[in-house]
Amino acid sequence: MPIVSIKSSSKQFEVEEKSIIFDALDNQGETLPHGCLSGSCGACKVEVTKGAENLKPPSEIEKNTIEAIKQNYERMHGKNSTDQKTIRLSCRARVLGDVEIDELK
Ligand code: FES
User: Fold this and answer.
1) Disulfide engineering: 35 pairs with which of 9, 39, 43, 102, CB 3.0-4.6 Å?
2) Structural domain count of the chain
C-alpha cells in the first residue's frame, strides 16, 4: 500500500491506493487543516514535496482552487514563487503511490 509522509513531523501513514489524502489520514487520527472538504475553499492546501507524480491528476474544481491559491501566494511571496512548488488539496488528491507532503510555507 502507498505511504503518505508528512515532512515536517516525519510521520508516515500507510493508505489504501486511490484513497483521498485527507480521509486516509483522518481515519488514522491525523486530521489535517481543512474547511469545506469539497475542493473549493483551499484551506486544505499542501505542498507535495516528493512523489507528485503518484497523485491522480487534479479535477477541474481542484485545478481552479489551486490556481486561486497560487495567485494569492504569488501576491505575498512574489511572481513565479510557486514555480518550483506542487500544490494540491488534501481533500481532493487521490493517492496512487508514495508521496510526501508538507504545509505550504
Ligand atoms: S477543505 Fe476546502 S478545498 Fe479542501
Assistant:
1) 43
2) 1
Q: How far is the CA of 17 from the centre of ligand 1 (A)?
A: 21
Determine if ligand 1 sits within 6 Å of the CB of residue 101.
no
Q: Nine-digit cell at 103?
A: 504545509
Which residue type does 30 have?
E
CATH number of domain containing 44: 3.10.20.30
Closest atom, ligand 1, to C-alpha of 37: 1
* Ligand 1 nearest atom to the CA of residue 89, by list position: 4
Write the burial class of residue 91 (CB in 10 Å: 0-12 exposed, 13-18 middle, 19+ buried): buried
pLDDT in tens, 20-60: 999 999 999 999 999 999 999 999 999 999 999 999 999 99
Q: Which domain holds residue 70?
A: 3-102
Q: What pTM does this model have? A: 0.96
